[in-house]
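STRUCTURE REQUEST FORM
Protein name: Glutamyl-tRNA reductase
Source organism: Methanosarcina lacustris Z-7289
Requested output: structure tokens
Priority: standard
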Amino acid sequence: MTEISSMVISHKKAKVEEMESAWHGDLDGMLHNLYNHEYVYECVVLKTCNRVEIYVVSPKSSSVLFSFAKEMGASTHIIDFYGHDESLEHLLRLSGGLESMIVGEDQILGQIKDLYAYSKKAGTTGKILDTAFEKAIQVGKRIRNETRINKGSVSIGSAAVDLAEDIFGGLTGKSVLVIGAGEIGVLVAKALAEKDIQAIYIANRTFKKAEEIAYELGGHAVKLDEIKEYLPGADVVISGTGAPHYILTRKIIEEAVMGRERKLLLIDIANPRDIEESVVELENVELCNIDNLRVISEKTLKMRKEEAKKAEEIIQEEIRLLNLQYKRQKADRLISELYKQVYDVRIREREKAVNRLSAYHTIGEIETEVLDDLTHSIVNKILAEPTKVLRQAAELGNEEFLDVVSRAFCLDKEREKIDKVKPGCTKEQTTVKEQAQVK
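Status: completed
Returned output:
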């Protein structure tokens, strides 16, 4: 049976370096590498700073995912492999913020929406994954509307600011440099704006973006190639760019703290990392990364855990609805094929009747319309009860009954005629993979 399977590498089992090493190439390349596999009919890849997740629809999901994990060079001890039911539950938990390092964080929902949209645009999704991801996005919104799971410090950005506060015992009068004006950088800057700090400096490769955020938050924009000038005066540096190389090397930091007596706190929330790890060897320098953000206040954690229980109840309710939706889809495919088959017969027989009557006298528009309405009504009335029975069987999970109906009406043969042709392919070039995807 063709269902969803997934492999998950996340902060729960993997360190930052392990997640970094598990990712090779760009998103587009990974998606198409997966989709080009003979037995992968649909796929979606999720990549964030805390996880790499792959969802596939395949009749040979286990071997496909194990093979891909081997190709990635990722150790199996950091990977979770999930079957259909587990994959659905994990995806809904993920969208609800229950699988995040910071429980309830909002950023993950936006990331799921964006990465799913990317896969959909790339043409690697179909009915099965579309149903799952659309449900996940809806559930993520519902959880945030009906619970308080996203209240307080729930993003990596705000958690980084909280960590800096804990280390310094408050940020009053401190000078903070934020490197990176992407989504995480904006979250950091907004969290800082609520604190009584002396100055916020926003550095970014695109200076205009840094200016926009600095203006909005009452900070100062800095060109990325000028950050060396601002490091000596900074108390805290929070870096979260998308650069593939170090933004702050040991040499840069060493020069910045030369002759300095007060602490310089560096928080690296980028993946891959922005700050060279060996800076910890320097005097008066403290380096924290994503792994340090696991530590959050007990009070906030307790509140989130209580709200997470409500979220779990919502997820279980929505899982039942999602499974019901999948079962109905199976029946709907059969029903659609059955109606098409019978309607084809209706049209042929109606035409025969019109032709026979025309041999005796002129058949006008009214007579033709009456015959059309009559045959249409007969077909709908005959199929009304079978339609109801098929849907009930699907909801009860009676696969055997659906298979019997399919064989009795030769619907499998009808299904074989439905070809899913990829862009740029002719009908003749359609493979077994595309035909099976429709099934």
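Reviewer notes: The domain at 3-146 is CATH 3.30.460.30 (Beta Polymerase; domain 2). Residues 413-439 have pLDDT under 50 and may be disordered.
Form closed.
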